[in-house]
């Protein structure tokens, strides 16, 4: 009986992407396949061998993890990681989804009920982490929206919205004086 494991994973065009492989045993042999075609293999005491489109763009580690350098849209697909621990074969399956690069976030603002409301948006297929930083405040705020009492707004303040997905981040900045009534 083989244990089959399947996980959807996400990367961004241009990033380096490593499959999240965790193997407890000593790996004797590994093979990576994409859509049933071999892309990398490693046999104990030999160097890794690479095939096809990943030939000059991937790194296979002794623990079995595979990193694709400079991810491309064509790298998307079903990957199978097979390893042998000298007792039996194990299989891990991944579906790699490759997303477009991150857009620059857009900041909108308005004031109501004595507060300045800032909203950060980005048109992106994945779920983003949003962080706000204010020029006069050492704290950061983990939220898509930020509310600041008007009495705390200084005309020289700037607000920066940072979006993050995987290892990539993009940011935009606004001067709060633009938002004041």
From TrEMBL:
It is found in: Membrane. InterPro entries: CD2/SLAM_rcpt, Ig-like_dom_sf, Ig-like_fold. Keywords: Glycoprotein, Membrane, Signal. SUPFAM superfamilies: Immunoglobulin. Signal peptide: none annotated. Its main location: membrane. GO terms for cellular component: membrane. Transmembrane segments: none annotated. This is LFA3 protein. It comes from Callaeas wilsoni. The lineage of its organism: Eukaryota, Metazoa, Chordata, Craniata, Vertebrata.
């Amino acid at each position: 009986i083989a244990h089959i494991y399947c996980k959807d994973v996400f990367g961004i065009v241009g990033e380096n992407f490593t499959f999240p492989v965790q193997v407890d045993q000593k790996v004797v042999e590994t093979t990576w396949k994409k859509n049933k075609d071999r892309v990398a293999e490693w046999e104990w005491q030999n160097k890794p061998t690479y095939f096809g489109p990943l030939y000059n763009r991937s790194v296979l580690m002794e623990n079995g993890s595979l990193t694709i350098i400079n991810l491309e849209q064509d790298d998307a697909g079903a990957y199978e990681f097979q390893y042998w621990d000298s007792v039996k074969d194990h299989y891990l399956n991944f579906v790699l989804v490759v997303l477009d690069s991150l857009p620059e976030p857009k900041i909108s603002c308005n004031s109501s009920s004595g507060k300045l409301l800032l909203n950060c948006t980005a048109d992106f297929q994945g779920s983003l982490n949003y962080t706000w930083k204010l020029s006069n405040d050492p704290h950061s705020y983990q939220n898509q929206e930020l509310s600041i009492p008007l009495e705390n707004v200084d005309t020289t303040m700037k607000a920066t919205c940072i979006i993050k997905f995987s290892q990539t981040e993009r940011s935009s900045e606004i001067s709060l004086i633009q938002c004041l009534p």
